Amino acid sequence: MTNAFPPVLRIGLRAIAIITALAAMPGGAALAQETMLTLSNANLPAGSNTVMLDEQALEDMPQRTLNTTNEFVDGKTDFTGPLARDVISLIGRGSATRVRLTAVNDYTVEVDLAEFEQYDVIFALAMNGERLSLRDKGPIWVIYPMDDHAELQDPSYNNRLIWQLVKVELK
Amino acid sequence: MKAHGWITRGLALVVILSIAGLAGMGLHAFRKDLSALQRATKETILWSAAQLEFEMARFTQALAEYAADAPDMSAQTVNNRFDVLWSRVATFKTGDVGRRLSEYDAQSQAVEALFEDMKAVEPRVVGLRDSGAPAALAMIPIFQAHVEPLRQLTLSVLHGEESKAAEMRDNVRASAQMTAILSFAAVVLSILGMIVLAVEVRRFRRLAASNLALAEDAERANLAKSRFLAMMSHELRTPMNGVLGLLALAKQPGLPRSQLRLIEQAEHSGRQMIGMLADILDFSAIQDDRLELQPGPFAPVDLAREVQGMSDPVARREGTPLAVATDGDCPREVVGDLPRMRQALSHLVAYVLSNAGAHDLRLDLSYARGNLVSVLSFSYGAGGATWRPELILGAPERGADQFASDALGPAVARMLVERMGGEISLESIGDERIAVVVRIPAEAVVRDETCVRLETRSAALGMIARSFLKGPDILFHEDGMSRPADIVFIEAGGEEEQIQLAIARRAFPEARIIGLGRPGSFEGFDDYVDLPLKPGALQYWVSTRIAS
Fold first, then answer.
1. How many Å lie between the alpha carbon of B90 and the closest alpha carbon of chain A?
2. Most exposed residue of A64, B418, B501, B523, measured as fewest CB within 10 angstroms of its CB?
3. pLDDT digits (tens, 9 = 90+) for A137-170
4. ipTM confidence
5. Which residues of B touch A134 (CB under 8 A)?
6. If you measure CA to CA, which chain B residue comes closest to A135?
7. What are the Cα distances from residue B178, in Å, to A161, B27, B169, B170, B425?
């Protein structure tokens, strides 16, 4: 099936639709069954400081494939997904300098936003062409291009490969 | 002394290699520890093991809350937690972290047992919405059975990692100790090397001082010898001049021919001895670096003529006249030490005449690339048994006992040429002729010369004109010269006048053509001078040419 809207517009429309639906619902209850990733920015005014993205919105974004290794996979592996900085741009960075990434089991990691500018970090949706599931570090796994930069071999970056990502909070 | 040097060099090499080896070992140990440290900090397997235990507790808690109908708990949440638990089990199956964890679980197989149970209850978890609280309650004991094995697994990972950390600390400590030992050894070896070097330096200094003293002694001895030689030569020459003077006085007219011949013979021997003493003096002066050159302008033609004159007695005695010639393109004057060049060339001529049995002897002077080139060529004669080119070319010095008197002349010639910055070489020029080529740097003297050509049928008129014109600024044009004539004087009158005029016009289109005498036809002549010739009339044309 093809879509008449360009990808950026489609993502915007989808994100606006979700925000509108949220606003219309009593008590702002989330569309839990559709939302895959929640973006929030504490530095923005209330009402426009949260964006909820579903799977389709993330898939409609420009996809980047990284071929890299890490401690949790066997050999070089292809990871595909949108660039982290592109996803964050959907809500706007504002004056935020740090970002907290939260997994489905409430595990969190906090990193400098500058890292996403410096490195092509992706929110991987697929591994070796296969869609990541909750049982296999999905639906979103934060992947750093570890083989492309020697400094990313440092163990501190290993801990930032957070999987089962559900929430991104800019601070 | 030689063996000592080898031992020292060998020792120095061993020291350097030892230091390099120790440095290499230290670097290897450091890299090994660094690699181990990187691995240890990278593999966060304790975290992964604890996460499995933690997620299983969360899942069991979710089952209990679902069974108790807790308000925030749903079948979907229980399924999600089941999936998360599944993902933790999957962590044990891939990557370096999975392999390390599996090593700890190899014996108890706790994770594999959990996974088997998870696969078995998966349909029940998926269908939890339909089966309700009893089904959830029934599954709790299944997972509670894995709590203890998973705790044991976490503990074994904890203890294992602690052991590895302790092992690594020991390694780092050992490595630090090793580095300290190696550093100490390197310092000791360096100090040893410096001591050896200091000893060597002192030894070489002593050796250098000793050699310097020996060289100074030898120099002083050589100087004393040269001075003695010079003094003796001088002392011998003075009485010999007295003898020659007396012999000259003894040659009175009317002496019988036989006595006259004896006196001439004695004079010849005396002059020979004077010449030899002069050579010894020169030889000594050159060796002591006392010979002062006195360069000045001179004509190469004069040099050739003087060499010919000086060599004439020897040439007559050997029956081989010396022919000399100067190249037309040779500068009229060059700057050099004429007496020393004459002396060097005369020695060479005398040597090849006396020792090479030379005949057809020629001396050709020319000028090339700032050098006055003297080519002394001759045919090698049958009597050349004593001809030794090495004496001319400067073969290795022979011992004093082998230094024959015939070697003095060539040696002086060679040393003089070298002193003047020149060189001597031997060349074969075909037809069994040999050439001794002497090249001596000599700057050409540049003057504003007027090139004059004389075309006279009368030899007397030519000689008169030449003598009137002769001077440092006049260059007489000869056949074959590359430079064109500036003025051509043609003897006027007669049938050949016009022919010579035409030839001169064609050969020297830029030249002024002046008639010597009144021409039969003025056409073609620039002017003429009256006969008999007067010096002023000829020189007038030279001066007007310069003025123009």
1. 7
2. B523
3. 889 999 999 888 888 887 788 888 899 999 999 9
4. 0.78
5. 80, 83-84, 86-87
6. B87
7. 38, 11, 14, 12, 70
